[in-house]
Each structure stands twice: as structure tokens, then as C-alpha cells.
Amino acid sequence: MPISPPQVSELVEKLVEDQGFDLEDVTVTRRDGADELTIVVDRDGGSDLDVLADLSNRISAVLDAVPDLSDDPYVLEVTSRGVDRPLTHPRHWRRNVGRRVEVRLTDAEDGSRRTVTGRIGRLTEADVEIVANHKGRIAVEAVALADVVKAVVQVDFSQPSVRELELCGLDPDEIARRRSRDGKQV
Question: In what residue span(s) does the Ribosome maturation factor RimP C-terminal domain sit (predicted)?
């Protein structure tokens, strides 16, 4: 009997939350006679593979205990959000402070769209600050969350300046951690 994403969510949400995660998404696809369940989770501070493997084992035990599912083959993948998923909740913005983001906005006045790229800064209930470095000139722009059409964290190999990270609201220890590689300051 095929299972639906809402059924999976209902079965695993409490377990996921009890382990300190937010349940972000559940997808179920049918392939080669088996359901492929992908469960996307996230939490403050991120996660490592060992923690996700443990969570996967716990989720598998919950699913295996459901009589209607116990005889049906399925493949389970428990994964983190990854950088390609849009920032849709305030917690996504908070968890990515200091990271580079591309934000597509609707201009409330004329309905046109524009894009802002920079680092995620301070966040309020209504706004997020985007810290942009334009060839050494640093600017901070407050963006209304209500005007965000889509926001995605960018893969970023650049080294942000200390000033950029300070304007993002990061403390000195976090700035030092982000600016060091293999324990050496860069």
C-alpha cells in the first residue's frame, strides 16, 4: 500500500522534534516497485552524518512498526536542507546568518522584481538585513520578508571581511571561526 507524504509526516514528526530537529519536507516517489521516502530535517547548528544516520534508524523503526507498511518495500533517505532549498521560514534565515544569499524581491510600489545579493544579517519579525560588499564598499539594506519572492543560499568560496561579518551580527568568536581554515587565520 503506497504511503503519502502527510501520512509519513504524521508518523515521524514528533520523533523528529524530540531529537531536536524541524521536519522541513517529506516526499514519496514510486520507483522500481518500492516507495522512496525522502525526509528533510534541519536544526540550529546543523548536523553531521552520524546524527542523521541515527535519526534515520529511529524513523525506520517507527515506519516498520506500522502494520500497513511493514510488508511493503521502501527506501528511506533522511537528509538536511542543503543550500539549494529556498529560505521560507524565519528560522531558515536565522540559521544562515553570515552566509551569502540571493534574494528576489517584488517592489511593493510598482510590482517589478529586483534581486539583492549579499550576506544575511540581523533579522526581525518583519525584515532581514542584507550586507553587500560592492568592491570594498559595504552597504546594508533592510529587506521586508513580505517582499521576498525567493531566497536561496549561494555556494560561496569568497572570504568575507571582518566588517561584513560584524554587520551580519556575528560575535568575535564566530567571526574568527569562519575566517580560519585548518586552524590558521587567513
Answer: 87-157
